[in-house]
Amino acid sequence: MTVTRAHARACGADREPSVTSVTPVTAAPGLQGVDGAGRCILALDLGTTTGWAIRAYDGLITSGTVSLRPGRFDGGGMRYLRFTNWLTEIDRLSGPIAAIWFEEVRRHAGTDASHIYGGLMATLTAWAELRGVPYEGVPVGTIKRHATGKGNADKAAMIAAARARGFSPADDNEADAIAILLWAIETNGGLA
Question: Entry's Gene3D superfamilies (predicted)?
Fold first, then answer.
């Protein structure tokens, strides 16, 4: 098998590691007794800088961000190939992933953000469908209301809410992913 430059770029061989922040935090005692606590679940805040949080089988919650910004010489699809490879690597290292929750955005600031979100969501749902992993979007207002008590909380309030729960998010993307994960755990995916 020959390795082309495009393949090397898709695998990230020409770039620095894409994870910019990783925060391991032991889950709070109340989270251990939740139904399905032995399952590995992933929460995502999709975007050029994608926030992620994962609860492993042992209850350890780890979070961070991954940059999906294309390089100077990358084609339009390289962002999505990198995202696919990143999902596969997370699944291999921490999984298998039993369920995925992501922030369901219905309104975007601009056309580019909308296109990027749509491409990432299509990539995520196709990846999950191929592996039989259930996934579900969570409305932005639901996440913010659960984290802060206010459905229209700003970025600073989301970061403060994550810090109040014992996490140390690098930015609002990571804070949103943590909030999604905690919502999924504490409400049993919206069923509680």
Answer: Ribonuclease H-like superfamily/Ribonuclease H
